[in-house]
Amino acid sequence: MPRYAIFYAPLQKDPLNKAAAHWLGRDVFSGESLERPSMVEGIEREEFDALTASARRYGFHGTLKAPFELAEGHIVEDLEEALESYCKSLTPFMLPTFEVGQLGAFFALRPSEPSEALKQLASNLVRDFDSFRAPLSEADIARRNPERLTERQRENLLTWAYPYIFDDFRFHMTLTNPIPDHLTEPFKLALQRYFEPCLSQAREVSALSLYQEEERGAPFLVRAQFPIG
Fold this sequence. Notes:
Number of strands: 9
Strand order of the largest sheet: 2-1-8-9
Strand content: 15-25%
Order of helices and strands: EHHHEHEEEHHHEHEEE
Largest sheet: 4 strands, antiparallel
Number of helices: 8
Shape: globular
């Protein structure tokens, strides 16, 4: 079954989207695969591809409401209509500038300082669109390794289908898989050098994007991007 997600992505023509598409090797708007050499000194193209494979499949995005299957009785057109109407009720707001950072062993673009407006938007989306979400299967719950989560994160997973929400929300736009320790510094330098031209400008949250995964394991694509306000 398809899965859908409500993500943040810059507007399609934003240079940051183009830079991220070439880094990941795939344009999440068009689905086009992009050939590129390894951008990290000291590793071959094949290893670089392997160390960005998961980020490439999901495409450039920041999670607001995590991927979910549709609840019984809903069709995707219902979700699109609801999200389009919801976006009209919102007001655009500015984000802090992005910077290259790490969450555990993987690299991502992260806001240079916390954004309460973004956290509140994500929290509202989790709640307001939960009626569209089918319950998680036991296999989905197990894949999250609930034994490794905090008590609050486990409660979030079981109640809202995703552990990292509300007070555990950490906005990020993933750029790699987990990176081995001996490659951490080369990747950090390469990412900072590559994305530096795109990161001096603060960006506005002026649209929300509905992403679609046609079947489990398929690449995510932007199905629609709805302007805010």
